[in-house]
Amino acid sequence: MFFYLIRRILYAIPIALAVGFVCFMLVQIAPGDPINAIVPADAPGDVVEQVRRDYGLDKPLPVQFGIWLWKVMHGDLGRSLATGRSVWSDLSSAISNTLLLALVASLIGFVLGCVLGGLAGAFRGAFIDRIATSLAVAGVSVPHYWLGMVMVVIFSVQLNWLPAMGAGPGGSADWAWDWEHMKHLILPSVTLAVIPMGIVTRTVRGLVAEIMNQEFVTALRGKGLRRGGIFVHVVKNAAPNALAVMGLQLGYLLGGSILVETVFSWPGTGLLLNNAIFQRDLPVLQGTILVLAMFFVALNLLVDLVQTALDPRIRRA
Amino acid sequence: MSTTTTTPTAAEAELAIQARQGPVRSQGYWGGVWKRLRRDPVTIVCALILLLMLLAILLAPLIAPHDPYQGSMLRRLRPIGTPNHVLGTDELGRDMLTRLLHGGRLSWFMGITPVFLAFVIGTFLGVLAGFAGGKVNMAIMRTTDVFYAFPSVLLAVAISGALGAGIVNAILALTLVFIPPIIRVAESVTTGVRNLDFVEAARASGASAFTIVRVHVLGNVLGPIFVYATSLISVCMILASGLSFLGLGTRPPEPEWGLMLNTLRTAIYVQPWVAVLPGACIFVTSICFNLLSDGLRQAMDVKG
Questions:
Q1: Strand, coil or helix: what is B138?
Q2: Complex confidence, ipTM
Q3: B:270-289 residues touching chain A, CB 8 A cutoff
Q4: Which residues of chain B lie closer than 8 angstroms to A31, CB-CB?
Q5: Contact A142 B286 (CB under 8 A)
Q6: Could you tell me which of B63, B82, B65 has the C-alpha nearest to residue B74?
Q7: For residue range B134-165, what is the model confidence (pLDDT) as tens digits?
């Protein structure tokens, strides 16, 4: 297992490099001269040439990638075209907001999904199974940005219970753990939780049903173990896979929250990306995607390692 | 035969009975699939809803009551149930029913085209990787891993964000998003089939690699890959409309459900139930495609 861990960690390095390369290429596939991604369109010609030389854009592509990579590894993601600020400074506060939203949403989704999926798997074909399965299908089929709008219509416009926009009173972007801020978190996180809820329900239902069919459960029943005791055994068997699915879902939410963040004007990476797209601010687009993708790579690695550690049956090395 | 004098054995008698009754199993694989589908009311209802929708959006220019682009500032944001505008009007006074019917054309087109393109390209690459094995497999599958390192929404937004708004760019981005998962499925089923005895037998009897792939492999892997691809249509439709919602897919004044949802966003304080209609269309379509895909998977007895 030790060698498996080492191999898995080493394998993440080329993946991370390749992800970096894809992000680097984003600016190259954009229509027009990549220099337009660095200097504003109305800059005078000699300035453009100066910047081109400074950034090494007159050199061949592999060299450019090397220069870019070197800068990125030192935390330099370039400057925003729209604001002139460094991309990293905007990104760091946005990332923490997105992480908060994604964590809360995946927690809600995971708890609901485990309860629904567990019940559905244990009582297959029963009424509760049908409810859980329908909810799961609805959860994976609903366009969550639309669900967000419906939530705003119901809870903000009609009932006037919860705020429709922002992450705090008066549009403040600094998070605090008080009720005024929490109120802003409810609608976006519940909206975002619908997808992991559906997927976790499906997975856990399948896992529990499969485990309940195994001979050891019959044996446990035969030796007179009560339901609670059997439950513990089922959880122990289902946990590694369920946790792995949940970990990946957290990663998907980090990248997938862009639409929900746009609906609720949540000041996270999604809103940043949306503004970058709107203003064609390529450095911000590239930097945000790079950081989010790196989070995803790291999370994938972590999920694999935790799963290996949790599940003694995995001996893949 | 009837005048034969020898006493027939039991087995011969059974054969004779079978011959008189005709072959016992005459329906074949697809007959069985159809028989199972017919007994599945959910799948049938979903297929019917989708067919009706497809018919409605194809006939949109004929059956839509108004012009999808022509609005009037005097009739802005009318509620559902307004005479002459059954589903109300949008923020520019255009008839909602008309725009929903016309909007479905682009939404369906952008939901299905990328999956179809990815199905063709992904199946080719996946079967190639699975059948060739070795270095070819390595090259294709490790490249796929890189795209798996991006959450799908992020990858779609990244590519179409870099390429700029437009239907073609959005379709291109979505195709790229769906190729890797299809490659993975195609590769894994092909690897499973490749080492089966009948492929070995075909190889032993001198069939060329091309013939083996065409006759023995494709026939066995296309079904599972197809079922998997249909399950992606729902995701693709949500993503495509999502791109338009972000302003990356279709551009106004073109009617498209995601874009309509975006332009109507500010109207949720005035006519909330009109504003959420396009999303309801996306939801119904996507849930029907999902259930249809589940039904197909069960009827075709595909694992995974």
A1: helix
A2: 0.82
A3: 272-273, 275-276, 278-280, 282-283, 286-287, 289
A4: 163-164
A5: yes
A6: B82
A7: 899 889 988 898 888 888 888 888 888 888 88
